[in-house]
Request: fold
Amino acid sequence: MDFATNHEGQLTIGGVAASQLARTFQTPLYVYDIGAIRQQIRAFKRVFEEADVSYAVSYASKAFATIAMYEVAKSEGAHVDVVSGGELYTAQAADFPMAAVSFHGNNKSKAELTQALDAGVGTIIVDNFHELDLLDDLLGDTVGQQDVLIRVAPGISAHTHAYDQTGQTDSKFGFDLASGQADEAAKRILADDHLNLLGIHAHIGSQIFEVAGFEAVTQKLLHVLNNWHQQFGFIPKVLNVGGGFGIAYTKQDDPLPPEAFVKAILATLKSQSQTLNWPLPAIWIEPGRSIVGPAGYSLYTVGSRKDVPGLRPYVAVDGGMGDNIRPALYQATYTAVLADQPNAAPAEHVHLVGKYCESGDILIDDAPLPTTTSGDVVVVFDTGAYGYSMASNYNRNPRPAVVFVENGQAQLVVTRETDADLIKNDLHYAAPTEQPAPAQTDATAATK
Ligand SMILES: Cc1ncc(COP(=O)(O)O)c(C=O)c1O
Ligand SMILES: N[C@@H](CCCC[NH3+])C(=O)O
Reply:
């Protein structure tokens, strides 16, 4: 893993020593290097600009959605995609320009669609016929038009964890292509005065290392758009190929630079352009992990240790599956170092575990580390995507704080939850005064 150090050899993030951040903000702590986020957004934009192709880099905010993150995306001129009323609400609280928001979801509720229409989101990415019925209902008496994309299941499986595949035919997301459902949706939208069809969307999956799937999906979507042009006279404006560009979590991972995926998509677009007799559409991408993953670090403090002769020791830290569910959910692997001696040679291989009441609460199953003592700060790399956003209060542990660091300055952007936060929605139970006698079942009757 690449990391920066100061003259004392301590790991630094955005110019501040990780152990200093741990002292100032306590652990467990999520820390983001904002410079790295900006750099990645700019790298994506540069590819499009150099190729002179219209585009949108739409940050998939499910990877990490807080007011401050929407503010960073806004300052970089990125678009965002949201997948719930809650993400949209957070973007609104950040004063994110609604015209640059795409609203996703395979089961958007009427309330969420109302919220999206009231907020004026730029694009709704329509997933199914039920959603079209809801939109008809909601837009029925209005005069305005809502821009939409049709999400299709392109029938392309990405080489990634099964839970991270979304483009296969047997998927809950998007209109089926082969059976003609997507064509039917296009026909219906084009006939609808309240909906303005911009184009098509597909997302084949997440943590993908090969460009082949993106080349195939670009080709397939162009083919579908061409059919819609021939059948319905439709002139497509947008081709959204989703996100999913993989990142390295360990030395074993060897992904392409995220921009390489975009280059492959644009090369496919250019190679197909002669077959289209309509102008090239804008290309939209939806990277989440590749924008925030490598920029994020989790800081923990070492507590207890368990040594069993002949077995790998357990080193426990003050966080775990509540702040990073990915190892338990996807068998995801990570890399860790000690904050104050990141270059020290490993002295042992340990199970780096959390404090949750689950045997599966293992952050890194086989972590090579120098000998640790209680109080050491451990840094786990590349936790910026799907860490905080998938965090829970399991075992009633408060969720950690989030700190942004840029140009040597650290700023708290999400405060640490307190015990009081944990019970803020709890109500006392007032049992009815007359307690009904418990019903006797045959089984209990028989034992009497
Ligand atoms: C529709 C859609 N777009 C974009 C993404 C972002 O994917 P990633 O974080 O892998 O770039 C996802 C998540 O898998 C998604 O479902
Ligand atoms: N949450 C997944 C990625 C997003 C999948 C959503 N389509 C992960 O951590 O890998």
Observations:
- The chain has two domains: 4-30+295-422, 53-292.
- Residues 212-232 form the longest helix (21 residues).
- The longest strand covers residues 296-306.
- The CA atoms of residues 226 and 275 lie 9 Å apart.
